[in-house]
Amino acid sequence: MKLLLLLLPLACAAQVTPAAIGNSPNADWLTYNGDYASTRHSSLHQITPANAKDLVAKWVYRLDGAKRLQVSPIVYDGLMYISNTNEMVALDARNGRQIWHYRAKGAEGARVNRGLAILGDKVYFATADCHLIALNRRTGGPIFDVPYSSFAAGYTTSIGQRGFVASLHPDTGKETWRFWTVPGKGEPGSDTWGNFPAEMGGAPTWTTGSYDPALNTIYWPTGNPWPDFYGGRRPGDNLYSDCVLALDADTGKLKWHFQFTPHDVWDWDANESLVLLDSTYRGKPRKLLVQANRNGFYYILDRVTGEFLHAQPFVSKLDWTTGLDDKGRPKVVPEKIPTPAGTKVCPSVRGASNWMSPAYNPATGLFYVVTLEQCDIIVASAKEPVPASGFRGTGNEGIPTEPGKFYLRALDVLTGNKKWEYPMPGPGVMWAGTVSTAGGVIFSGDDDGNLVALDAKTGKDLWHFSMGRSLFASPVTYMIEGKQYVSIAAESDIFTFGLFTPPTH
Amino acid sequence: MRRLWLLALVIGLAHAQPSIEAGRELYMGACSGCHGATGEGSQGPSLLSGRAGRLSHQTIATIIRKGVTGSSMPDFPLLPAPSVANIATFVRSLTAPAISAQLPGDPARGRALFFGDGKCSTCHMLLGQGGHPGPDLSNIGAERSVHQLRESLRKPSARLEEGYRSATAVLPDGSTLRGVARNYNNYSVQILDATGRLHLLERRNLKSLEIAESSMMPPVANPEDLLAFLAKQSTRPPPQQ
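^ Those are the sequences you sent over. The predicted structure of the assembly is below.
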């Protein structure tokens, strides 16, 4: 006990290195999805299917004024960092006591914040008005506050009328490269839009990408083209909307791309997590990239070349295509293209899955993903699109007699075959993702405000705790002084759980 | 021709915009007797802190015109509207962020003091330059009024910054740890020391813990140059007036 107490301050002098981030998540949780590969699989194994029933609430931290926290907390060296719109706090991760609070004074806009980053001695977050802010991680003192896009011109973190991925230097915030997700006039891919102006194309980059250090490649998913439900003015595939982009980390040069939903008229952003894994696939060692896409298909790609290897539906409510060709291109059912009168389409606009993070456990070979079985009526407009007017080409309606249902599904990562599923009580609000642990326990939110623990192999329900709040964030796990914790943001609060230990006095 | 027109526009605007300077003159004549020459308060309350900082321009103008019934705050029904606006603008400027103030001190000398003989940078950081464990001052000009800054420098212990009380803890091995308590309750304490290390401690493991009611910051006798320098510290350019 004494020893640990004295070690803690010494460890505080440590710097977060890229190598340490490469080894995360272990005791620390260092990126939005825990690791570069976005597996959300932690090596921690103190909590097991045998003892998960002994989980208890350890502390709750309330961030005054916060509404729908969507952050995955970052935990390093005993401190937990949480970001919200234009503010960040650091907590003692053992008891939730606040250590510092930074508000970006003068920042405009109120758009949701989805997370933060850590490197060296700094923590980073983006404000709603598109500034990157770096803070000293121990004091919360600012190091720099620099704009990377123009709020005045209609950009807000992380949405704009023309998407981009930018690389900013961690010491200064200075931009080193930028890749526009809608090509400019005359650039490759610009011929997939007719005469539609690139400045309006959309394809926003509103979730976090993945990174393969060995290939020095960043994989970034893109959102749908604008207007969402009306494609009449943008004939063609609309590159690089609904894609995964493989970008050279040093230069931002496009190595390859794969488009899941060409000429999207259903708002099926491809911003779901891109999970990287190495495995023997059809008898050959391969570097794979997998995604459970909003359009209802689970995809397997070769992440070196971008080659399409396999896809299959992971929901049963899917009727917009008769299947994919051997390049992964969908054959669209013409009757499923939205019309002014309204068209029933499955999956719904919310998607078969969405930005709630999946997890992958290499020991079980299973991919854990929150899925939604639902259809919508989509109404398309033939009106001329007016940018920045809120125009989306009309919209979607739910079908009251067919409420959707959420399931946490475990898929065989190499086939997409369903191994088990955990139905949620719903229909409710559900934007929570998952975390996987080497202890063999999966943690997920449900659509009734519970954090649930499931057996990773069987899906057996081991434990739950009702937080009484709607969930918009994914859980994380970490360890301090030999104790494993699980945390999740729930509306204005961070809830943290651990195994029961009798109090010592 | 075009320049003349522009000039006319600027003069026109200057007339239309309430002026702090014109307001100060009127204030010295009509208000300073009760609210003090610098707004520090005497018979009337201070206009530098507390409630006064939260009053809008409109509310101040109404208080001036109508007075406060049941108190000695008089009404000024005959003051012309532009004069009321000028006084209200001046009163607001008393609590405005320091960055918007015109100050007599020399910011260059202030800077030299801050990083030199004043030893301020041994305890404070500016955009990553400096030391611990005092509060980071990178944005202090945008967050505090001149009055608040002046008070912090002259009487550091008068209003302690939450999260910066001096703490002395005796650890289980008998050694003593000094710093500021960034937070504490009956169960835990989080101490930042002068080297920038955070100590996350459980109180039941400590031999003793003392949290002082005074600041470790030494008072500054003649703060004008430092004030001029600190007033400029802002992480973002000040908003356009």
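Residues 169 and 230 of chain A are 38 Å apart (CA to CA). Helices of chain A lie at 2-11, 18-23.

Shout if you want it in another format.
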